[in-house]
Amino acid sequence: MKHEQAAAQLEALGNPTRLKIYRILVRAGAEGMSVGGVQEQLRIPASTLSHHCKRLCETGLVTQERHATTLICRANYPSMQALIGYLANECCADGSCPPTIRETAS
Fold first, then answer.
1. Which of 31, 64, 80, 99 is the most exposed place for a label (fewest CB within 10 A)?
2. For residue 80, how far is the Cα from the chain centroid?
3. Collapsing DSSP states into helix, strand and coil, what is residue 33?
4. Where do the HTH arsR-type domain residues begin and end (predicted)?
5. Is 8 helix (H, G, I), strand (E, B) or coil?
6. Please, what is the Cα angle at 63 between 59 and 76, to 5 degrees?
7. Are 42 and 2 in contact (CB under 8 A)?
8. More confident residue, 103 or 2
9. What is the pTM of this model?
């Protein structure tokens, strides 16, 4: 993953509403969720939801698929994994890793 793409995705998720949308879609699994279902959970205007979904789609974090009159949104799991990998791949490359939470709780 390129630095610019990771920055764009993190910027998109930096908005509280988009982060809520994304978490809803991640929880929905491979089936995804209709835009109406997301709107029902968040209780935000359709135009606001559309704006935020568009941004998540532009960054590759979300995909949309039309089924007749219903628009289904899905988290793009490979993109999510690439972003997580980008953040974690070089963990402690220039130093030692801090103890994990489990190790410090013991």
1. 31
2. 6
3. strand
4. 1-95
5. helix
6. 75
7. no
8. 2
9. 0.87
